[in-house]
Amino acid sequence: MTDQPDSPEPTEEDVFEQKAVRLAKRERLIAERKDAAGGAYPVSLPITDTIPALRERFGDLEAGAETGVTAAVAGRVVFSRNTGKLCFATLQAGDGSRIQAMVSLAAVGEESLQSWKELVDLGDHVFVSGEVISSRRGELSVMVSEWTIASKALLPLPNMYTDLSEESRVRSRFLDLIVRDQARDTVRARAKVNTSIRNTLDGHGFIEVETPILQVQPGGASARPFVTKSNAFDTELYLRIATELFLKRAVVGGIERVYEINRDFRNEGADSTHSPEFAMLEAYQTYSDYNGIADLTQELIQNAAIAVAGSTTVTWADGTQFDLGGEWDRVSMYGSLSDASGQTITPETSVADLAALGAKAGVDAPPHATHGKWVEELWEHFVLESFTKPTFVMDFPVDTSPLVREHRSIPGVVEKWDLYVRGFELATGYSELVDPVIQRERFVEQAKLAARGDVEAMTIDEEFLRAMEHGMPPMGGMGMGIDRLLMAITGLGIRETILFPLVK
């Protein structure tokens, strides 16, 4: 079978017909290999080299050069061209590196050459052994002396030279990884980011722990949870929305610098920056505050950028360069809102005045919106789009931050920041509230909001309060979305940074 690189995308009918043909080839392989271990799909192969290693070793061969070196490699067929006495195939490794296989009549004989033509299709995994050479066109190749199909692809690959739609990429990520360099690069970038985060935190004496995903009571964030049930315990359970309350329990127990890279689940909307299932870093450091934890967060992000891009200046998918280096600005939420709106906004500004400003500016808020909720909605409207570089927005309203310590010198606000990069919130940090009496009061106020219809309000967590009552040390804490960190470094949307995102 000859496959051309410019062939159009197969229709459903084409796919059905190709699958039937390939199934027949599979049956032939089974018949021919009935006495072989593994049948049509060999259990193991005598591989001696990898495609990346061969490219590293022989990538500079001159056109037409011979090495006298025999190599045995395997890869997926992503291009095939069959002629009379010589067949060409491009084999691709998992990292996207490629080598050409040349199957000639002189080297393998008529029967083997004919079998290649009749059995090998695009998408098959093929093992080849032979001398490493450079073709007359200068392409690194294996002049095949032996070959076998390692795995038969029953469905055709998409066109390797036509971009998949975003919908196709996220629904069939395995195909995306086969055909697109950027998909593979993003997977590697994510791994580098996680390694960098761990290295940075480990270097500061942090300990990585694991906390429960299934919880009897959701907490640690203002979010709507997913609900499930345990048959063994005959009780309703929740998928965690954050790890905060358990990590703080660990701090009470004496793990003074603690972190977790976790999966969180929030039963809310999905868009270009939100996913119902996402990865989050949370870290807590005793005897620090929101200023110290901001310094740490900047270091984490800049180190991650260097790990991926080699520099704090990253290049996004669209070619735009973005500078994550230097010291990042820290601006006041109330001050920046006052400047942008032309109206002085303070913690004492009434809900009625904020609602009037909202009506004038075309900003909506829920019917039960508090002072703090209005301030945050107005801030996003007036200020957010003005940021062109990473910026810490400091000092939030107290009523929207129930787990945060009150500001040491400014009444009515708490020591909290949100970090904005690329126009979205990337991380948040606190001087953590450690007084159990005030924490209980905050939980009670949250419960009142829930009673008025706020589905994201927190509930009173007696077990967490009991831990606090045993003495919680002062600390700074932060949470950062790993998917969003990849967005900041790569310029991609959230569905591209998650390997297998949830889709309808």
Automatic annotation (TrEMBL):
Q: Kindly list the positions annotated as binding Mg(2+) 1.
A: D418, E425
Which parts of the sequence belong to the Aminoacyl-transfer RNA synthetases class-II family profile domain?
Answer: 190-501
Location in the cell: Cytoplasm
Q: Which GO terms describe its molecular function?
A: ligase activity
Does the entry feature the keyword Secreted, yes or no? no
Details of cofactor binding: Binds 3 Mg(2+) ions per subunit.
List, separated by semicolons, the cofactors it needs. Answer: Mg(2+)
Metal-binding recorded as keyword = yes
Q: A Pfam family matched by this chain, by name?
A: tRNA_anti-codon
Q: Which residues bind Mg(2+) 2?
A: E425
Catalytic activity, per the record?
tRNA(Lys) + L-lysine + ATP = L-lysyl-tRNA(Lys) + AMP + diphosphate
This enzyme's EC code(s): 6.1.1.6
Q: Which UniProt keywords apply?
A: Aminoacyl-tRNA synthetase, ATP-binding, Cytoplasm, Ligase, Magnesium, Metal-binding, Nucleotide-binding, Protein biosynthesis
Question: Its quaternary structure?
Answer: Homodimer.
Family from the record: Belongs to the class-II aminoacyl-tRNA synthetase family.
* Record's protein name: Lysine--tRNA ligase
Which organism does this record belong to? Microbacterium aoyamense
